[in-house]
Amino acid sequence: MSRTLSFRTLISASIAALAMLPALAHLQELPATDASAELDYRMNEHIVQVPAGDDGVTLETTVFQPNGPGPFPLIVINHGKDSGRPSLQPRDRFYYMASAFVKRGYAVMVPMRQGFSNSGGRYRDHGCDMTANGYTQAADIRATLDYARRQSWVDSQRMVVAGQSYGGLATIALGTGNLPGVRGLINFAGGLRDDSDRCAWRSQLVSAFAEYGAKAKLPSLWMYGQNDSLFGPELAGRMHASYVEAGGRGRLVEFPSFKRDAHGMLASRDGEKVWLADTERFLQEIGMPTAVVVDVPPPPSAARTGFAQVDDAEAVPFLSEHGRRAYRDYLTKMTPRAFAVSPSGGWTWAEEGEDPEGRALATCSAKSKDPCRLYSVDDYVVWTDGRLDQAEQTAITASNAPVPGATPATATSSDPTTSVGSTTVR
Q1: Element (H, E) at 380
Q2: pLDDT at 412
Q3: What is the pLDDT of residues 91-139, one digit of tens each?
Q4: How far is CA 377 from CA 21, 330, 382, 418, in A?
Q5: 419 near 260, Cβ under 8 Å?
Q6: Which CATH number fits domain 2-295: 3.40.50.1820, 3.40.50.300, 3.40.50.2300, 2.60.120.10?
Q7: Residue 259's closest CA among 166, 333, 339?
Q8: Tell me: the pLDDT tens digits for 133-165?
């Protein structure tokens, strides 16, 4: 069974700062929002259905873009593959990378390939044939580019394609064909892992990149971290060397260890500190813009309160002793992170990835009979209610009282191979 990790499951600019940023041409306006749509209108996020093939299949594709009609330079960002069924994989957004590019005047497209999320068609797996896997996934990226060239808001002569993990492999495979208007490719931790018996997936990857290099038509940037759990420095070096020796043009950047696993770097809000400088250098080399021209308003965040110190586990309302142990464990997690509680004693924490606050609240509410609220975010408390009503006091008493003969609840975590966003629920 093939398995790799996507960037998931993983712009602050105030108006007062505009005087210090003469490159900013205009402020990205903020239209009315529809919270139920789960779209970020700060970047005009919306979803389009991209045709893929002649059988009516469409690809669920997230689009971000600046205000105005364009045409805008375009980046297409391609996702990896989570463990499990591709159809259950959530829609990828690459929010942090998308935000950086919208600020630089780009439109961004993130297509979910066939069989993934809400896209049509079926996921096609060629087993240990990594070369074929890359080519098959690249076909959907090509369909996305064909669609983009027909859109009035896209500058069809200024496009770049990027991909993470399986999407990185597919991006480099895509570069073997003629791609009008595409100036370069960016490969973030590209590859595909197959743990099935009798599959020499590492050597298969090296061979695949050698074939892609022999047919490559575009320059590329490769970025791999020292503590990547799937494609470490030795394998990344072999893959890159086979590509370049076969004739491909690609610069390899081996960045230092990033948090627990560099494979999730692109999903982290801190990842921009790693990838941006080298990416900007590459974009300049291929004639793509890098200057900040749009100010994207930061997303709203919970306000810091003086309810308690963040490390005071005894101050957290509603929790049993087991919950307080979980909160102390939460304090060892990496930021961004969030902890949510409910009056019935339920609790959840989430770390890393996109929107840990929203993930914590959603998971807590799904597991608790009462609505959940955030208690802390990152390194500060956001809880505001110091006066609990009688119902809440009763709930606290009930949640803290031991149940005769009950076995203590055990904290569970999400798939430990997922480097972006561990969640614990009681």
Answers
A1: strand 380-381
A2: 28
A3: 999 999 999 999 999 999 999 999 999 999 999 999 999 999 999 999 9
A4: 29, 11, 7, 21
A5: yes
A6: 3.40.50.1820
A7: 333
A8: 999 999 999 999 999 999 999 999 999 999 999
- 122: tokens are 């079926």
Q: What is the pTM of this model?
A: 0.81
Residue 300 CA: distances (Å) to CA of 12, 98, 143, 357: 10, 18, 35, 11
DSSP assignment of 52-75: -SSSS-EEEEEEE--SSS--EEEE
CA distance linking residue 355 with residue 214, whole number of Å: 41
Give the DSSP H/E element, type plus range, for residue 162. strand 154-164
**Angle at alpha carbon of residue 307, lines to 305 and 310, rounded to 5°:** 85
> Quick one: the chain helix, strand, coil %, rounded to 5?
30, 20, 50
Which residues have C-beta within 8 Å of that of residue 196, sequence separation ≥ 6?
1, 2, 127, 128
Give the CB-side neighbour count of residue 9, counting CA atoms within 13 A.
20
Residue 291 token pair: 């200057």
Give the model confidence (pLDDT) of 184-208 as tens digits: 999 999 999 998 888 999 999 999 9
CATH 3.40.50.1820 in the chain is located at 2-295
* Confidence band, pLDDT 50/70/90 cuts, at residue 302: confident
H or E element: which one contains 111? strand 107-111
CA-nearest of 356, 399, 398, 352 to 376 is: 356
